Amino acid sequence: MTYEEKLASFTSRIDAGEKVEAEDWMPDDFRKGVLKFIEMHANSEIMGALPERECLPAAPSLKRKMSLCAKIQDEVGHSQLLYRVAEDLGKSRDAMYQDLITGKSKFHNVFHYPVHHWGDVAIIGWLIDGAALVTQAALLESSYAPYTRVLKRICSEEQLHLRHGEDITLEMSSGTEKQRAMFQEALDRWWLPIIHFFGPRTVVEKDLLLRWKVKTRTNEDLRQEFLDRYVPKITELGYSLPVPVPFRQDGHWLIRDEDIDWRPLDAIKRNDGPETARRLGARKEMYDTHRWVREALAEPSVRAA
Amino acid sequence: MEVYEVFRRGGHREPFEHCGNVIAPDADLALLLAKECFLRRQEGQHLWVVARSDIHFFSDESLLELAADKSYRFASAYRDVVGKRERAHERVRELQAS
Amino acid sequence: MSDSFDALVTALADDELIIGHRHSEWTGYAPHIEEDVAFASIAQDEIGHASSLYSLVGGGSGPQVDALALGRQPEAYRNAVLCERPNRDWAFTLARHWLYDHADDIRLEALEQTSDSKLQQLVTKIRREERYHLLHADYWMKRVAQGPVDARSKIIPAMSAAFAEAGGLFEPFEQEDQALDEGWLPLPSSVLLARFMNWATSALDELGLPGGSEAEAVIPAEFVASSSGDLIAGEDAPVEEPVLPAGVGGRRGRHTSDLAGMWAEMTTQYRENEGARW
């Protein structure tokens, strides 16, 4: 078969709703696009471990200490699952790790921001994981089958994280004035980054991943689902939302595009977010100082003692 | 380092199911890591790891499709048993009558 | 229940909490992603053991776990100094994990004969979980100790540093004599220390790592806890502020500045919001 014939047959498989496996023939654009997408997802999971990790030592009870540690562990586990899927597309974990710490590859915007207190844990666990769950659930029907298989597990763990985050939110919301103020203060800082998380409007005709059905829904569609689901819950708890303030129209909670300041996101896309350098620097230091561990693991088997 | 495929089983009545894979230098560490990566919520009572290089599969999976009618291998091919039983009984009554 | 029982359980719980806290600092940063997941489980296990042990203090009445874990002043903690040391790197973390979990196994094995049935049951449960810790620690030590030159060059000094303070895990705790008399503690710390040293000497030798000669884990005889918990120094040592051997003092609340920093981070949120529910 010529390349064109293979491409035509691949395209018709995708159009018919068939799934692609790692060992199947796929066009280079598909392989590269899927790899980049999953690599970014994997990077985000491992980088997403860091903000919460910074809150872990100060957990206000042993129960929360264990559950937050377990939650971060899950995020690291998600990165493990995703890196494995990405590796099978032809890029080694080490290469992906190096691209991450040198800033060649990217991770989600929300993990470029600082954390200050336990209110951040509530926001990350409830709203950021809530936003992530909306986007990840939309990928369960992705055309790249190995991705959907790990997403099934990831989404079910994210459901748990959502409960965990909501539990913390509710506990703080029924707590002292100081606790409520902590939550509001964190919400004020995180709201814009959360809106950014969904990205700007999708340019459908330019979006190759949408064409290949790796992604199935547009950014604005996902953002809308998030707003409709979470804005009522936030306001019911008596918190106010900062700019971009959502407003109610035709049964939906809307945000005007022109109310969104995209400049912080643009900076993050250049890896110039508030915490980017520090968090990547810490990872890089760990990577550089622990080369010997990778070498020790690379030995085929331990000699008999 | 090698990729080890991980399989787990809920109990003796269940089949082993594939649940993911880990990177490890040997089977011992693969087991230790797989336990926490894939069974930390007690998703299974039995755990296997298999080096991916020891797993073999057809490169052409269309070999697995049935190329001709093999309906006789399926219970659905014998759906008419009720009617046939009825006819057999009819025949018996016929023979007894004669 | 008695004060000596509480002293015993608090020392055990503090060890578990403090080392669990240190282990949890690796979560998200471990040098291999699968290992990150595995080590986070070990951290959670230790913190969970601490929680269960705290709940036995004072006869187990009232909501005391967090008050004990996060509501005390640093000098009230009775963990061994080794547990509070920063992680430094994966080599020191491994060396400590290996020494600690084997030491823990030795004391828990003895505690399976404790006269308190609740503690006895808990210890049996903890030991079931610790089996994985031992397998994990043994595997890694073997791989690193017998691995490439770089790995050995990292683990040797790390092990020396950790082993030098490991004896502190068997420093007698306050009221140990009463705990022995009352049967909570079946064997004195000195006997457990001897068992530990026996094990460590041969295990280190088997791994080809320097043991007793280069890294000495000893509690000199002149430092013994009196029944009141005050430190009785030998005649030659100054009565005030005796200089303790490496790793010793934790069981009497004499900690290093490493605990102070960690304590501030660990407890501030709890202490600044007294009575708040989280």
* Estimated radius of gyration of chain A: 21 Å
Question: What oligomeric assembly is this protein in?
Answer: heterotrimer
Greatest interface (CB-CB under 8 A), with counts per chain: A-C, 54 and 52 residues
Mean pLDDT across all residues of chain A, rounded? 96
Reading side by side through the largest sheet of chain A, how are the strands ordered?
1-2
Helix content of chain B: 25-40%
Structural class of chain B: alpha+beta
Show unreliable segments of chain A. Answer: none
Number of strands of chain A: 2
**Which sequence of strands runs across the widest sheet of chain B?**
2-1-3
- Unreliable spans of chain B are none
Largest sheet of chain A: 2 strands, antiparallel
Strand content of chain A: under 5%
Fraction of residues in helix of chain A = 55-70%
The largest β sheet of chain B comes out as: 3 strands, antiparallel
- Gross morphology of chain A: globular
- Spatial gap, N to C terminus of chain A: 55 Å
Entry keywords:
heterotrimer; B: 98 residues; alpha+beta; three-stranded antiparallel sheet; 3 strands; C: 278 residues; mainly alpha; two-stranded antiparallel ribbon
Helices and strands in order:
The complex is a heterotrimer of chains A (305), B (98) and C (278).
Chain A: H1 3-15, H2 28-55, H3 62-87, H4 93-101, H5 118-137, H6 145-173, H7 177-197, H8 208-211, H9 219-236, E1 247-249, E2 252-254, H10 263-269, H11 276-289, H12 291-298
Antiparallel strand pairs in A: 1-2
Chain B: E1 2-9, E2 17-24, H1 27-38, E3 46-51, H2 81-97
Antiparallel strand pairs in B: 1-2, 1-3
Chain C: H1 3-24, H2 33-54, H3 65-70, H4 81-84, H5 90-111, H6 117-145, H7 149-166, H8 176-181, H9 189-207, E1 224-225, E2 231-232, H10 257-271
Antiparallel strand pairs in C: 1-2
Helix pairs in contact in C: 1-2, 2-6, 5-6, 5-7, 5-9
Concise structural overview:
The complex is a heterotrimer of chains A (305), B (98) and C (278). Chain B is an alpha+beta fold and 98 residues long.
Task: Provide a descriptive summary of the structure in words.
Chain A is mostly helical. Chain A has helices at 3-15, 28-55, 62-87, 93-101, 118-137, 145-173, 177-197, 208-211, 219-236, 263-269, 276-289, 291-298, and strands at 247-249, 252-254. The longest helix of chain A is centred in the middle third of the chain and has 29 residues, at 145-173. The N and C termini of chain A lie far apart (55 Å). The relative contact order of chain A is 0.11. In chain B, strand 1 (2-9) and strand 2 form a beta hairpin. Chain B has 98 residues and is of the alpha+beta class. Chain C has helices at 3-24, 33-54, 65-70, 81-84, 90-111, 117-145, 149-166, 176-181, 189-207, 257-271, and strands at residues 224-225, 231-232. In chain C, strand 1 and strand 2 form a beta hairpin. Residues 224-235 of chain C have low confidence and may be disordered. At the A-C interface, helix 2, helix 3, helix 6, helix 11 and helix 12 of A face helix 1, helix 2, helix 3, helix 6 and helix 7 of C.
